[in-house]
Amino acid sequence: MARFQKSESKRNRKTRIKRKYSCYVYGEGRKDKNFLQALIDLKKFKYHTSKWFFNYGNASGGSAKIILEKCKKAISKYDYDLVLCFIDIDNLKSSFPKTWKKEKQKLEKYYSKIEVIWQIDKLEDEFKKVLGDKYKGKHRLNKVAKEKIKDFINSSYWKRILKPIKEKEKKLQK
């Protein structure tokens, strides 16, 4: 009987070790979501996120608040370990030209269960910054990103995506 209990506890330890964390990735639009799926499928990204599994969703544009509300609604029935929402900051800046930073902080505080990845102006600008002249539009983006993977993984955009994942992973391991 003691032998059975010992093997049972080994099995439980293995289960705890192999547990994958859940992350919901929410893009501003369908093309953004498709790019994020391709990004997460990159071997280099999987290397850093091997303890995670990802689900995806997307809004269809709109203000930052609308996108966050849609994200909140999409996750309401689930208990994700981490929720990442990618939002272009250009709309916030144009809606609140003088107070956009304050508005950004309000949104982050109100939607504190959602980790917002603010994109400099638009996602396209992030791509241009990382990929340079090779960026010709979203339809070829995934191919170009794979070709210039070294530039991409050394970019601030890549680091801003991985940072909340790694921080949450540390918290969950404790």
Q: In the CATH scheme, what's the topology name?
A: Rossmann fold
CATH architecture label name: 3-Layer(aba) Sandwich
**Total helical elements:** 10
Q: What's the mean pLDDT score?
A: 80
Strand content: 5-15%
- How far apart, in Å, are the first and last alpha carbons? 32 Å
- How many E-type strands? 4
How big is the Rg? 19 Å
Helix fraction, binned, reads 55-70%
CATH secondary-structure class? Alpha Beta
**Which structural class matches the secondary elements?**
alpha/beta
Number of domains: 1
The shape is: globular
Describe the structure.
With 174 residues, the protein is an alpha/beta fold. It has a single domain (22-173), classed as Rossmann fold, CATH 3.40.50. 59% of the residues lie in helices and 15% in strands. The protein is built from ten helices and four strands, in the order H-E-H-H-E-H-E-H-H-E-H-H-H-H. It has helices at residues 2-18, 30-41, 43-48, 64-75, 90-95, 100-110, 123-131, 141-147, 149-153, 156-173; strands at 21-27, 52-58, 82-88, 115-119. A four-stranded parallel beta sheet has the order 2-1-3-4, sandwiched between helices. The two termini are 32 Å apart. Mean pLDDT is 80; it is low at 1-9.
Structural features:
174 residues, Rossmann fold, 10 helices
Give a brief description:
This protein has 174 residues and is an alpha/beta fold. The protein is built from ten helices and four strands.
